Amino acid sequence: DAKDAKLSDKLGVKSLTFKQSGLDKTKVYQYYVCAAVFSGFKASGSIEFLSTPKDLKVSNGDSGITFTCESIKGAKTYRVYRKAKGDESYTLLGNASSYKTKNAAGKEITRYKYVDKSAEAGVDYIYTVKAADGKNYSSYVKEGVSIRRLETPKLVSIVNSKQGITVTWTK
Q: How far apart are the first and last CA of the chain?
């Protein structure tokens, strides 16, 4: 109200900033902002920090390039982006789906996978991802992961003769 605005003007307060660094990317942080005016709280809001997904991997397969990443605490969806090498900006491809696998120690973990069926053979691509919890998004994985789309060879024939076995395929 007008009384609060006058007090703010008298104190010279237009806005305040809080910055926290050194966040642990394995944790979900919650921040609350409250304005106190002698008699109590006037406004509040919150935002959650989502860490950036880790362990990004790409591989060529029969149906396209497969992108995977580890799950992170608090995230519900993983949005996968792609750009051709040399391009300025990323294009959203879609959401990755979850699957279970085991890590190097044999512990079951959840990873997320997206198969890019539109990747063209011979093109170098860079993939990245953002995690989301329904309200907030993580940062992009800045460096992304790179791969050249390779066309899967097509087997034409296998011939067994006295001279040995001959395998023929197309590029």
A: 73
